[in-house]
Amino acid sequence: MDNLFVFDHPLIQHKISLLRDKRTTTKEFRELVSEVAMLMAYEVTRDLPLKEIEVETPVAIAKTRVLAGKKFALVPILRAGLGMVDGMLNLMPMAKVGHIGLYRDPVTLEPVEYYCKLPDDAVERDIVVLDPMLATGGSASAAVGFLKQRGVKNIKFMCLIAAPTGIERLHRDHPDVPIFCAAVDERLNDHAYIVPGLGDAGDRLFGTK
Ligand code: PRP
Ligand code: URA
Q: 95-114: buried (b, 16+ CB within 10 Å) or exposed (e) per residue?
C-alpha cells in the first residue's frame, strides 16, 4: 500500500514481541517503547536533506555531509505518545516537541481534544506525530487535522502497531500523510482494541491499571 511503511527489522520485531507479552513489566514496557521509537527514527529520517561541508581531520581535509538544517518537530499524542519521545530525541536532539492531548470517548469512541501546545514556528517544521497505537484511526486523524488547521503541512505519522481500519481511515482522511509502523495487526475487537495488539498502551506505559 502506498504511503505505508512497515519496519520488519529483526531488532524492531523482537522488541515488539516483548511489548505484546502481558508479563512485560511497566518498566520494561517503557524502555522497549523508547528503544523501538529510536530504531524507527532511523528510517523515518531517511529522507532528510544533507549538505556538503569540509572538516579538517588529523590527516587531511574531508569533504563530508551533515544535515542541511531541516527543522523538525515531534508531536506525541497524549498520553501514550509520550513514551516514544525520548527514543526519538536520542537520535534527533535538535527536534522541538509539541503536544496534543486527545482521549477516546469511551462511548462514542470519538477523539476529544483537551490540550494542544506546539512550537511557535510549527508551520515551518516537518512534523512527526507519535502514538503507539493506530486502532480506529480517530485519534490520529483528529491530531493531524488539528495540526493542519494550525497551518502545518509536512506531517508523518509514526506508531508501533496499526490495525487495518486505522490505516484506511488515516489514508482516507489525510492521503498526504505517510504512516510508519512496526506491525499491522489483524483487526479490532468490539471495544476497538487492536487484536492481538498489546493492550492499552497508556496504561501499560504509566502503570495505571
Ligand atoms: C489510545 C492510543 C491512541 C488511541 C488509538 O489512547 O494511545 O491515542 O487510543 O485509538 P484510535 O485509533 O481508535 O483513536 P487513549 O485514548 O486510550 O488515551 P491514553 O493515551 O490517554 O491512554
Ligand atoms: N488504544 C490502545 O492503547 N490500545 C488499543 O489496542 C487500541 C487503542
A: bbbbbbbbebeeeeeebeee
Cβ neighbors of 59 (< 8 A, separation 6 or more) are none
- Cβ atoms 88, 79 nearer than 8 A: no
Strand order in the sheet with 183-184: 133-134, 161-162, 183-184
Q: What is the pTM of this model?
A: 0.95
Sign of CA dihedral 26, 31, 200, 92: positive
CA 128 centroid distance within chain: 6
Four-residue CA torsion sign, 111, 113, 115, 118 = positive
Cα of 144 from ligand 1 centre, angstroms: 14
The three cell numbers of residue 169 are 481511515
The CA 157 to ligand 2 mean position distance, Å, reads: 16
10-residue mean pLDDT series, the chain (209 residues): 91 98 98 98 90 98 92 95 97 94 82 92 96 96 95 96 98 98 97 97 95
In testing the pocket of ligand 2, which one of 22, 194, 208 has its CB within 8 Å of the most ligand atoms? 194
- Helix ranges (H only) for 62-158 are 85-91, 138-149
Domains contained in the chain, CATH given: 4-206 (3.40.50.2020)
